[in-house]
Structures are given as structure tokens and as C-alpha cells.
Amino acid sequence: MMGWFRRLLPREDRFFDLFSQHAETLVLGAKALERLLAADDIEARGKEINALEDRADAITGEVLLAVRRSFITPFDRGDIKDLIQSMDDAIDMMRKTVKTVTLFEQRSFAPPMRQMGAVIVEAATLTAEAVPLLDRVGTNSRRLNELTEQVMRVEERADELYERGLKELFLQHGRSDPMAYIIGSEIYAELEKVVDRFEDVANEISGIVIENV
Predict the structure, then answer these.
(1) Count of alpha carbons within 13 Å of 118, Cβ hemisphere only?
(2) Dihedral of the CA atoms 123, 124, 127, 129 (nearest 10)?
(3) How do residues 165-189 score in pLDDT, each as one tens digit?
(4) Pick from 144, 100, 127: which is nearest to 195 by CA?
(5) Virtual CA dihedral for 158, 162, 168, 169, nearest 10 degrees?
(6) Of 32, 53, 57, 158, which sits with the fewest C-beta atoms within 10 Å of its C-beta?
(7) Where are the domains of the chain?
(8) At a CB cut-off of 8 Å and minimum separation 6, what does 122 contact?
(9) Which residues contact 19 (CB under 8 A, 6 or more apart)?
């Protein structure tokens, strides 16, 4: 009954612009991370990701402020907050990865790490396609479900790369250079967590679709 009533009232649509801006920032961050893992001017790419994370934080702040100020939101306030915060967690993990790379002065990255960078770009691109579709969640529910399922499959590929990368890292450095193994495994873990955060975003989107269709 309340859902029917809410659909009759004027709603605040600015959320969708902010969601899209944040999603675009995620794509830029993912592409910068992919280039960093290709050892393409690591310092510059790190600064780029840090700046994008600051931009994403500002957008998240705008969304949370709009939630407090808006009389009618397009869907549940808690869902809005959870969605934008899960998106923000993804770029926060990108920044954490940069911190680890910088701290340990990494200058080269194993093939599975570089492949995980490409997977992260794929997850971010799928997210950027899905988020604007929430503007018409009922009409777009089928495509939204397809996109979230694709993110889940991407996350599975990331898990496989993570496990393979750790195995190769151990065989290469486990006994001869424990510190290299520790540093490499930390970077792998953080890259996997980036993809996990995109899975969280997909789960939030799935929940919104279920509640609003």
C-alpha cells in the first residue's frame, strides 16, 4: 500500500545523477589501477586514484545530505545509503591498494595481478551501466538482474586469479624471499577485496530491484 502511495508523490531524482557520477568515478579509478598494475607511471596513477577517491567521497557526502533533506526519495532511504556506501567502499579499497604499493615501493606486478586489474575494470563498467537504470527500476529490472549476475561471474574469476596468483607467488618466493611473498599476497588480497566490494554493490542493486518491482 505504501509503495503504491509513494509512487504517486513527487520524488527527488537528483540521486540518480549522483549515483551516475560516482559510478563514472569508479570506472576512472579502475582504469587508473589497471594502468598502475601495468607499471605505467605508478606514482602518477596512484595520485590519480587518490584524487578520484576524494571526488567519490564528496559525491557520497552529497548523497547522504540529500537523503536527510529530501521529503520523498526514489526508494528506501536505507537502500540509498547502503548503495552509495558500498560504491564508495570499492574506490576506498583501490586507494588502500595504492597505499600498499607505495609503502613497499612495488615497481612490477605479476600477470595474475594485471589480469585482476582488467577484471576490476570490467566490474566497474558493469556497475556504471547498472546504476543509471535504477531510475526506472521496474522497466529495467530484467537488464539490472543480468548485469548483477555478470558482476557475480566477474567476482568468481577474480577469486580464481587470486588463488592462482598466490600459488605462483609461493612457488616463486615462499622459501627464498618471504618478504616478497608477504607483500605480494597483501596486494593480491586487496585487489580481491576491490572486486568483492563491487559484488556488494551488485547485491545492493539486486535488493533494490526485489523491493521495488
Answers:
(1) 7
(2) -110
(3) 999 999 999 889 999 999 999 999 9
(4) 127
(5) 140
(6) 57
(7) 2-212
(8) 154
(9) 63, 83, 84, 87, 131, 132, 134
Nine-digit cell string for 103? 609503502
User: Residue 29 CA to chain centroid, in angstroms?
Assistant: 9
- Concatenate the DSSP letters of all residues of 84-149 into one string: HHHHHHHHHHHHHHHHHHHHTT-----HHHHHHHHHHHHHHHHHHHHHHHGGGTTTTHHHHHHHHH
Report the SS3 class of residue 15: helix
Identify the architecture of domain 2-212 in CATH: Up-down Bundle (1.20)
As a whole number of angstroms, the distance between CA 175 and CA 53 comes to 37
Phi-psi label, residue 105: left if phi above 0, alpha if psi -120 to 50, beta otherwise: left
